[in-house]
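_Full entry_
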Amino acid sequence: MAEWADTQIRTLIDERRTRNDEFHNLGRNRKIFWNSIADKINQENRTSLNGYQCKEKFSNLVRDYNAMCDFISGRKSSRSRLGVQYFDEFCIHFWERPEDEFDRVRSINTFNRRRSRESGNIMPVPSTREVECELRSSERRLSQSPSISRSPSVSRSQSPPISRRQSPSVGRRRSLSIR
């Protein structure tokens, strides 16, 4: 088991954060991604880490952050030294997949379904106009939030108009797959 210096951990975190979009766009095989991070750490620190060690170390850092969250909320009685050291940095969840239009539409629909079940009302499916309005509103909120970074997405002016017969997600999916 490799002993990690603070400079190595710093490089690991910085690389994983700045290359988050790349990480999530690779699909299932991320071996080359982790090997490239290992190469950078090895170059800067004259070490001989491999991609697997980098992947495991990062997973352990996320696990330590989650353990700290459990400690703070009272669900656990112990805390991690590394969880404490890197807690503030991991609070922004930079390693998670960035939210896109499909995620926002799904959130809106899930919220509406849950609300209608709780109130006993049957809610009609939102219209295209309502969904687009909500998307614009959520994009404004995201752009005003300094802690959330977004990957570039297809702009409204580039995407073809949605016909009344198509659902918003189908129209967007087609415009994204063409590019």
